[in-house]
Amino acid sequence: DHTALIAALASGLNIDQSTVKAAFDELDAAHKADETARRTAMYAAIAKSLGSTSDAVQAAFEAVLPAQPTA
């Protein structure tokens, strides 16, 4: 939770908290998209090396790895 950081940045920069929160939300969305792209490329590369499908490799990873945080 970035509530305290958002409040401190807004106060220190003399801008509205909603503006700072929007910036954090945008950064978080970009980070999640980058992570998804990285994982997709990894599954595809492993699948190619193993002669399998990306979906099968992804399913195998998801079966043994802890669930990713949603927030």
End-to-end distance:
9 Å
Which overall shape is indicated by the principal axes computed on the Cα atoms? elongated
What's the SSE pattern?
HHH
Evaluate the radius of gyration: 18 Å
Helix content: over 70%
Q: In DSSP terms, counting alpha (H) and pi (I) runs of 4 or more, how many helices?
A: 3
Which structural category fits the helices and strands?
mainly alpha
Q: Which strand-content bin applies to the residues?
A: under 5%
What is the average of the pLDDT values? 93
- Give the uncertain stretches in residue-range form: none
Largest sheet features: none
Strand elements, count? 0
Can you lay out the helices and strands and say which pair or pack?
Layout: H1 3-13, H2 17-50, H3 54-64
Summarize the structure.
By secondary structure, the chain is mainly α. It is built from 3 helices and no strands. 79% of the residues lie in helices and 0% in strands.
Quick tags:
elongated, 71 residues, mainly alpha, single chain, 79% helix
Can you give a write-up of this model?
This protein is an all-alpha fold and 71 residues long. Helices cover 79% and strands 0% of the residues. α1 crosses α2 (17-50) and α2 crosses α3. The longest helix is centred in the middle third of the chain and has 34 residues, at 17-50. It starts with a helix and ends in a 7-residue tail after the last helix. The model has no long low-confidence stretch (mean pLDDT 93).
